[in-house]
Amino acid sequence: MDQSPEAAPVQNLKNFNLLLYITEAAGILLIILVGIWTISYRGGFAWRSQPGLEFNWHPLLMTIGLVFLYANGMLIYRTQRTVRKRRLKLVHSGIMIFTVLLTVIGLVAVFDSHNLAAPKPIPNMYSLHSWIGLASVILFCCQWLAGFLSFLYPVVQQSTRAAYMPIHVYFGTAGFVGTIAACLMGLTEKAFSTLKDATPYSDLPSEGVLINVIGIAFVIFGGLVVYLVSQEAYRRHPQPEDDILLERRKN
Q1: Fewest 10 Å CB contacts: which of 58, 61, 75, 136?
Q2: Where does this polypeptide localize (predicted)?
């Protein structure tokens, strides 16, 4: 839970804006690279009429939602430190809801692409990528629900909220790290399953190079985000009006 103004440490925002700009640029570049990969090398997008192309929605939407938007949802309390906390809670929740929407569409796309594949369906949920990915999605959804009930529409006591806050922060970050790990596993799995025969992955064709660059971009973006959300010096200081939402709920 945020500390009282009297107990708050001296805020040191040195290099914060620079790191934030670099982080956002890395995230946007990551989305662009995934878009180039899925369009230029994987054939673009379709829906159930072409299951092979429907799959391409999966990496793109997961990157936009469960990586870029997830990260910005976590960072919102540090990037918008002068905005009233009531509004920040609503924005944070809204970003996470949109993330869930994109994630659901991305999951539908990958399951469709497997189940509708010809000449026979592709098995689901057998790889470590799928296990880690689904676990991260479930953790994300549980985090959102627990956060909604604890902070946005509180149904628990203040002492319980205070005790839960560090848990919420920790598992939010853990879920994000799990998502990055799942993305790296998915990239590797796709590279080995598609880059073979005339253009094996071991020969490092142009698509293989791009996949590796995308993987590095995931690591850089994920590392920067975790650094920004873990630095106490970059934490948003509480403001007197922060408890207005809670007071209105009580009244």
Answers
A1: 75
A2: Membrane
**Residue 127: CB partners within 8 Å, gap ≥ 6?**
185, 189
- Give CA–CA dist 130/123, Å, rounded: 11
For 199, left (φ over 0), alpha (ψ -120 to 50), or beta?
beta
- 16-235 topology per CATH: Four Helix Bundle (Hemerythrin (Met), subunit A) (1.20.120)
CA–CA dist 1, 165 (Å, integer): 5
Q: How many CB atoms lie within 10 A of CB 72?
A: 18
Per residue in 131-167, is it b (16+ CB within 10 Å) or e — as a string? Answer: ebbeebbebbbebbebbbebbeebeeeeeebeebeee
The domain ranges of the chain are: 16-235
